[in-house]
Amino acid sequence: MTSSLRNRVAASSLAPLAALPTRLAAVGRHNARMLRDSGRWLVRSREHTNYTFELTALNREHLAWFVALVTDRPVAEIRGYIAELDQDDTLRAHIRTRTEASPRRRLADPVARWHKRLGWYALVRATHPSHVVETGTDKGLGALVLAAALLRNGTGKLTTIDVNSEAGYLIGSRYAEVVDLRVDDSLSIIPALRGVGTFLHDSWHTYEYETAEYEAVSPLLAPGALVLSDNAHVTTALPDWADRTGRRFSYWQERPEGHWYPGGGIGVAST
Fold first, then answer.
1. Beta bridge partner(s), residue 256
2. Tens digits of per-residue pLDDT, 167-220?
3. How far apart are CA 156 and CA 143, in angstroms?
4. Interatomic CA distance for residues 214 and 239, integer angstroms
5. Beta partners for 269?
6. Which of 93, 152, 210, 233 has minimal Cβ neighbours within 10 Å of its Cβ?
7. Do 213 and 219 form a contact (C-beta atoms < 8 A)?
8. pLDDT tens across 156-173, in order?
């Protein structure tokens, strides 16, 4: 088809019909990729919730820049922290051992895949908080990552909270030395805490409950504290709270590598 003919077709009522094969091909490629990734995951993974995956190389680079901007640290330093966690074979071995020994081993993968937790780790390494609080422990993968960062810092403790008495089964060994696991409703525990340098919401993901956690922790925050949301890709709870309290809000979105899940993200409110 000549250029002039293409232009005449594009300007005519036949344009939608002429473009249909190209549109079908684009959708077909996308759906084929999703089916491939979904099928691979169904065969290879045991996970049924809280999916773990690798990030694309470009997404990891964007994460490094995001953390550098939030913490006002050189991006080379942040890249180093991300590589540090990636190369932590001791932590990977610990996760494999604890997973395979768990009664829930048939519903969890023993291979450590960090995705957004790379950002959690780098944020703690860059800011050296004395007290990190995480709501929503689940199996304890995030708690382990945060504990590993605190141990590298040589200071600080983690309070992690979950209503499930079976939560945190990955926590153990030297990592447990800096972790205080509380089994209760987060809104019952938070008011008794002090000097919170990093707060991470990852519990009940409703706007109302997430907001209630921020309101509860607000008077307990140390100067310069970071407040993180694992749910900022779903609700506006954190940016709304940041706006009300005179903080800045920043957001980074995950881009999974070879996984059907579209990814979550990291929301951060900072002063």
1. 55
2. 999 999 999 999 999 999 999 999 999 999 999 999 999 999 999 999 999 999
3. 13
4. 11
5. 227, 249
6. 93
7. no
8. 999 999 999 999 999 999
Find the range with the poorest average confidence among 15-29, 140-154, 181-195: 15-29
DSSP characters over the chain = --HHHHHHHHTSTTHHHHHHHHHHHHHHHHHHHHHHHHHHHHHH---SSS---EEPHHHHHHHHHHHHHHHT--HHHHHHHHHHHHT-HHHHHHHHHHHHTSTTGGGS-SS---TTHHHHHHHHHHH--SEEEEE--TTSHHHHHHHHHHHHHT--EEEEEES-TTTTTT--GGGGGGEEEEES-HHHHGGG---EEEEEE-SS--HHHHHHHHHHHGGGEEEEEEEEES-TTT-SHHHHHHHHTT-EEEEEE--EES-SS---EEEEEE-
Cα separation, 157 vs 139, in Å, equals 18
Query: Per-residue pLDDT for 143 more than 60?
Result: yes
Residue with tokens 């309101």, as numbered in its chain: 215
